[in-house]
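Notebook p. 47: complex prediction with uridine-diphosphate-N-acetylglucosamine.
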Amino acid sequence: MKVIHVVGARPNFMKAAPVLAALKTRQNVGQTLIHTGQHYDANMSDIFFQQLGMPIPDVNLEVGSGTHATQTADIMTRLEPVVTRIKPDIVLVYGDVNSTVAAALVCAKLRVRVGHVEAGLRSFDRSMPEEINRLVTDQLADLLFTPSEDGDQNLQKEGVVLEKIHRVGNVMIDSLVQLLPLAKKCSTDGFPERYALVTLHRPSNVDDSASLKGILEALLEINRRIAVVFPVHPRTRQRIAELGVPLDNLHLSEPLPYVEFLALQSRATAVLTDSGGIQEETTYLGVPCLTLRNNTERPVTVTMGTNILVGQDRQKLISELTKILDGHAKRGQAPPLWDGRAGNRIADVVCG
Ligand code: UD1
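Predicted complex, structure tokens below:
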């Protein structure tokens, strides 16, 4: 059996690694790893492959950055001949980035089976590019691997037949479980003892200067009470430079490798983020998470986990953070099937 994996952006890598590893143990499975090149900086891509023990991609489409249409179209144009040449039995796509939807479109038109890992998540907010990517990918996929029950329900409401849906749990947690022991040994010397860890990259927060300015001002206020550690995504770095707000007192850094970031996350007093995956990782780790968004496609992190949505409400952000600093953080638990074995369950279905 020939399996192609298509990955492109940082959050894809920790989802694909466990599936690649699980399928490697199965008989008669040949795997091809294709990197679209959506993320291309060494600290957004290469270091993740190394730390996650992923093979070097067999093919790199080297699409780079662009508008949504350009990036998606470039991936499609460059991927089509590769899939046509390899003639896979199935193509696995991950998450909700432009690489995911581009690959699903190419394969659906070539009548190649598509498996979507992390299917069924919905923010119900179509102003998010990722929501469009999720909706389209799930309509095209033949196998839909969901991380939680809400995913199954969303898909059924959209008319996806039950036979296509496989609740396998959260594959990203597989990578976390595997690398947490290494992260526990990882030094965070040079970082403050007690800190709030921040990540920001959503267009709705960083591309709008008023929103970004408001968030940066809130971070400067928070930094007077607890040190703010902020590894800055390239997109956000560009926007901050354009705004010119001085952030000298914050602990800014380049984007961090997986293990170092996991170490910082697991030791943080609180995490402030607009990422999807970090809402899940903090829930698993039991670390309080304040999400700077009005909605989440991962509601289980709010209902069962440690996540609280604070939107763009600065007062709410400060008051929820104050509760955490005062020792009244929200407690939670890991949802069912977030157990480090999702990759194996996916391999069972793919090979079944
Ligand atoms: C993408 C995903 C988002 C995911 C995020 C994780 C889509 C629509 N969005 O957003 O869901 O949460 O990745 O990071 O697919 N850049 C670099 N170096 C890189 C990559 C990007 O400098 O290696 C810069 C470029 O200027 C680029 C900008 O960052 O224009 C944005 O990158 P892009 O891949 O378009 O989207 P992300 O914001 O990273």
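Notes: The chain has two domains: 2-170+338-351, 186-325. The first helix runs from residue 10 to 24.
Next step: compare against the earlier run before touching the bench.
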